[in-house]
Structure formats: C-alpha cells, structure tokens
Amino acid sequence: MSNFFQTKLEYLRGVGLQRAQLLGKELGLFTYGDLIQRYPFRYLDRTQFYNIVDLHDDLPYVQVKGILRGREVIGEGPKKRMVAKVGDASGELELVWFKGVNYLEKVIKNHQEYIVFGKPTMFNGRPQMAHPELEEVSEQKPGQSFLQPVYNTSEKLKNYHRVDSKTIMRMVGDLLKIALPQVTETLSPALIEQYALLGKAAALQQIHFPQTPELLEKARFRLKFEELFYIQPKLLRQKDQRKVELAGQIFNEVPTLVHFYKEIMPFDLTGAQKRVIHEIYKD
After folding, report:
1. Coil, strand, or helix at residue 82?
2. Is the dihedral angle over the CA atoms 145, 151, 155, 159 positive or is it negative?
3. Dist CA 72 CA 150 (whole Å)
C-alpha cells in the first residue's frame, strides 16, 4: 500500500487528536492502514425483515418494518424514558429509550413508517426492543440492505468515550471513500484470473461492507490467499538461511554397520535396536 496509508488517524474526518490517541492506546490503531485492515469479526443480517408476531427472546439482532404510534415521554430525571409502539399487520412492538430522550423527541415522528433494528426481548409476554435504531422508510436508499459489520472495541471506549462498533463502522466507511482509489493491486493478473480472485480494492470494500454473503466469502478468500501467498517466500528464505547458518556436521567416512556391531558394541543388540541404527545410518 502507498504512503497514504501511513497517514495518522487524527486526520480522518470525525476522529481528531483525542479520539485518535484513544484508538491507538486501546485498539492499536494509529494509521489509515491500521484501520482499513481491522476487519469485522462478525456481521448482523440487515437483509431480512421479521413479522412482529414472530419475535422472541432467542433471536439475535433483527429488523422489522411498521408504523410508529403512541410516542410518549415517561418519568423525570434519571427515570426519564421515551416509549413508543411500532405496528405491522401481525402485531405490535414496544420500543423504549433511556438515553438521548431530548434528542429523540425532536426527530421521532408519530404515524411515520420506520425500519426498526435491534435485539428483541419479551416483557410481560409482549415483544420489546430497548434502544433500537430507527430509519424512515422514505429515506432508505435502493440496495441499502447489507450485512452490517461488527468490530471489536474495548469497554473503556464504549462506556466512557462512546466509541462502539457502530462508531468504528462509520469511521471505516469514511476512510473507504478516500482510500479505495489509493489501493494498489498486490497480485499478478495471471494469479487473479487463475483463481478467480477479487481485486484488492473490491476485497477491502466487501470485507467491511459486503453486499451479499457470496461476495463476503470471495473477499475473505482473496485476503487469505494473499496472506498465505506472501508467507511462502518468507518460509523458503528462512529455510535456505538455516541451511547456510545451521549446517549440520558432515562425516566423510562412516564405518559399516557390521564393524559397528562387532568392534564397538560390547553386547548384542535387539532386532528393534538394529532397525533404528540402520535407519540412522541411512540418513
């Protein structure tokens, strides 16, 4: 990769010096290259919609589509929370937020159709989501559904500095917009054609924001192939170096086994011992 990827993270939009220092200390991310090569460890399926009636505790993060109604703020002070309901043709889902209530009052609209994304739980026999993500259906762009990447972070970053997986996802998205034109191909056209590999830039795009499960697997294969391909010359070089630096003792004259048995050994060997000595002699 070019010198572009040695650029410090503090120069990425929305990062700044303080956050960059935290990312370096907590996650070992210092440059554009560090961030673009910090791959997700799993993905959330944003390609499937569930009916509200089918929600239960055992499901992972899911998304539903419905009309929001009944938005209200309950409680005061630390107990203040926003509660709303989203309904589709199959049932009703309760939503609750304990943080950011003042902001949510300004942006959440009654009688608006939303895509709701979060972890469903059951409360008093009814489905509920705490702190779900909301997106107006009218704002959804064509082809926007994807497998959402999940990145490792630290408890300190999440709890005290609000740098969670989604924050890192946004940072990676911003970086890819300016970084992909700087990516240079590292494998020959012959290899890419022979093994039907994705290009390096396409693989980086798809490993972070895969459009389909098939493209995600192709991106993984490409990046694994490249890593193993460049390990091979290193291993061969180390092997040659060991032959030169750690050459074993060479015996120009080796006595015959018969001489060894009769003249050197003071006792008869068992059959198994003779076989082992014979194998050593052959080597």
Report:
1. strand
2. negative
3. 31
Tell me the helix, strand and coil percentages in the chain, rounded to 5. 45, 20, 35
3-class DSSP state of 196 = coil
- Which of 8, 13, 43 shows the shortest CA–CA distance to 23? 8
Contacts of 232 (CB under 8 A, 6+ apart): none
Paired residues of 45 in beta bridges = 147
For helices 165-179 and 200-208, the axis angle rounded to 10 degrees is 160
For tokens 């309901």, name the residue.
85
Q: Is the separation of the CB atoms in 83 and 74 below 8 Å?
A: yes
CA distance 100 to 84: 14
Which residue in 27, 52, 54 sits closest to 39, CA to CA?
27
Average pLDDT rounded to a whole number, residues 188-209: 95
Long-range contacts of 257-265 (CB under 8 A, 24+ apart): 257/281
pLDDT one-digit tens code per residue, 118-177: 999 998 889 999 999 888 876 545 445 478 898 988 888 876 677 888 899 999 999 999
Burial of 228 (0-12, 13-18, 19+ CB in 10 A): exposed
**Which whole number is the average pLDDT over 235-255?**
74
Cα 161 to Cα 22: distance, rounded to the nearest angstrom = 9
Q: Could you tell me whether strands 126-130 and 91-97 are parallel, antiparallel, or unpaired per DSSP bridges? A: parallel
- Quick one: tokens of 262? 């009769």
